[in-house]
């Protein structure tokens, strides 16, 4: 069996990974300790430990060395033994790479020993290597090759190698060999590769066992598998590890006995000389350091290459690892089944797919922290104080508390606690503070004396969690749990939970049958529960403790990073963006809660509620009775890393994730809780009103020190920083106020989230909506301006944050790099509720008109109107939808009565490029849609609300006449040939007559009759539209003859029209932006070589675009032929948008009419629009649901023009109409199906 290894992380010298570790793959090539024995081979082949039939390394260029943008990796292979190849040593000491593959080969009998068969294999951007064998390969080789496409067949690098052909099968299953693929696509291709191999083996009745440990990477994502085709057969060994850094251990010595530090800079040359002699002389111990906020390094290897077993996790059989980077570049590792038929089934694969989509499926723009948060309560004015360190009588290091120079929150104290980041804090009876750090120590601080008391020594790995439960201090580090007596500060018990499961990263406690149970979770994705009483004495050798454990096929797909215990459930969260809710007694999975994007890093139980936070910086409040997200709190601008709570009884919250005491008897509920973030701030929140009471910020410009841990008592907030400091702020003033409020209200528990006044004055709701609109308008989301692409991304991110505040699942999707993302959201998936789809577009038109009287990107309120680009089209209506749903969440005690699917595009003003594809590829987000609501049209007038029941279609085309090969001088060549512009004017002039009637034969054919009738029934009795008023609004001297309300509306809404919208001259290949306007002062002397007329056709039901285009082409060519010109003419269709038509007598319209009447006190006018919105008909076809257009703006809103505006009253009532319509829709579910 071969040996393999892969590294992904910051750029590193290849020698640090391949040559110098004391258990490197070079050492494994002649001293393999876990090589799987094959009883089918002769003894000397089956039981050897040599891998000397060739080797190879592959690497991707670091970002600094890439000059041409070439994504392909480089490979070096040889048939000589790896331990005796000088070139390997020379290259490894000079090449730095962020992703490295290494493989040593043991060839099977009949397999040629040649460089062509050496791993890793490379094609395009992909590297591939394999440890194992495809069972019966020689019998099925031709059948496997027959499965390949021509393109994939050409990638086969060796027809003798089962590994090379397996690689080609993987490439065959990729959508494209040229374009980069997402982690989910790579995983799907890997699963399809396994399915193909298994299928061919079954068809050929192959019984030989396949061992398929594959590793593949595109330079960004890595997928590694461990698989044996026989479930009863152990697969070949495979491990993974992750950490903040990979480096030579500080106490490592080389083979020469000299201390050797990590290789960097000037050391490379010296180490290169060492490597040329032999890799053994540079050998030393390597380790992975802990990543306080997140890990940057991952390793995959057949055998561990570092000495600490706590760093390595055995990959479960039948599992694929997906390793890539999430927010801020942190490594994320997820597990996925490879074959649904062997284990958990399709449901597990679907869960993993959803986790991959949640972590990797969103387009993320890197956030930059501001120089200082504007709402920070801390104002740091001085430098950090220096402290003299002294030793007490026992010789222990004594670190006094240091008072800050100034702090606007009052006296703030800090403790220089550790040499490394402070990962956890616990407080014992307001007398002792325990702190744990990456320095593997637990330090005890005496609060009364304000000095260090003593360290608790015993752990050899970073101390990840501390909690106090039943008079015990519990700590976890590596794979060990220790129980300490806080009174005597001695270790009482040591628990060893796992040998191959990696490090433990989460801990909580609970009571079951009057017995204290501890629960721990970590790298291997399991949650383990065990009684604390079963722990052994510290003097006894630690062994793996029997424990209850969650089942891998139903639990997490990634590492468990946080735990919390409630009265009924155990909740866990991790790197897979999942929150698993487990039954406390059985650890059986109850439900998976979703909504976070990226890893969930912290949990906090507040009675029947659960607070979660993670990479997105958002806090989600979950109702564990209803098992739904009830609220999202915003404020942090980076990862939420820790949370803690305090109860009115002045006791820490019993269910706080890392500091839980485990009691499950009823206690006073927390009145405040704190959250700590990597943005350097901690927020103190009230559970009475769910508002932020105070913000604490650590010093540091431009970026403050990240806060890794927090602990809240009734008197102080303790924060652990990344530089080893513990900060303490007094909070007793806030605690006393909130305790008094709770006592006066007679409530000992949290007020229900939805019980907040449902009759809240509209002025408050309007202020919130206005504030949101002001923020949104400041983002210049002009889709037509390439220089504003970043602003368009900011606009999409802003909408994501708004939807996340509702508790919705959110995704950003785009189909190509040159289009703005489509924001998709989903709030609720209850099958017993109707699903409403809400559409809008966040992109806007440019605002370059000189007529603007206000800043178009700053909301300005004048005389009851909001002015600014996008107020009416379409940012105002979008926010009205969002705030309507938000208010209903507060008002409806039984929850939102409908499911809501949101879709907001960023290219509507630019042709909706990519929108159709984005929706089509994400149809599962819109499952069950029964109605589509759009607000992207206008009223017919100024006073009466309207409902739109139809819109015309549009054909955009150009007519181009070309003549000379170049522009010519009018003085020299004028009058000697037929000029293109004159020809074009003749053709354009014969498209319509004097009354603007279109002269194209058949242009008015197939028009549906009486489409105006529903509108006239109510318009005739209203004063919303008049001929004179309409003429004045246009600013035209006169309308066409016989103008009446009916004829004008019929011409605007129900009749096809043709308009010449632009005429330009010049070569069209140069672009229309400057064609005809590049001549400057000499333009009167130039005859253009070509002329182009742009034409807009609007068509109506039941006309077809194809027939109209054909009729226009025929007419144009006939008119041009009559000129007998030697020039050429062509018609170019630019775009086509279909008409949209609805039945105003439908149930959906009746419900909307009732909603409008409830808010405005009058029936809406039924109107059509002459404009075109192809998205309405497109969504109807994609979602198989009817669309409803509810305009909010008035006819005078000046959309696309200067001084765009939206009446404040319209925005407020529009929001309320949506709320009423949702209630109407929910009440008529059977009718609306």
UniProtKB/TrEMBL annotation:
The keyword Chaperone does not apply. Residues 2-326 form the Glutamine amidotransferase type-2 domain. CDD domains: YafJ (cd01908). PANTHER family: BETA-ALA-HIS DIPEPTIDASE, DI- AND TRIPEPTIDASE DUG2-RELATED. The keyword Transit peptide does not apply. This is Glutamine amidotransferase type-2 domain-containing protein. One of its GO terms (biological process) is proteolysis. Keywords: Hydrolase, Metal-binding, Protease, Repeat, WD repeat. Transmembrane segments: none annotated. GO terms for molecular function: metal ion binding; peptidase activity. InterPro entries: Cyt/Met_Dipeptidase (IPR051458), GATase_2_dom (IPR017932), Ntn_hydrolases_N (IPR029055), Peptidase_M20 (IPR002933), Peptidase_M20_dimer (IPR011650), WD40/YVTN_repeat-like_dom_sf (IPR015943), WD40_repeat_CS (IPR019775), WD40_repeat_dom_sf (IPR036322). WD repeats lie at residues 415-455, 593-625. SUPFAM superfamilies: N-terminal nucleophile aminohydrolases (Ntn hydrolases), WD40 repeat-like, Zn-dependent exopeptidases. It holds the Pfam family Peptidase_M20.
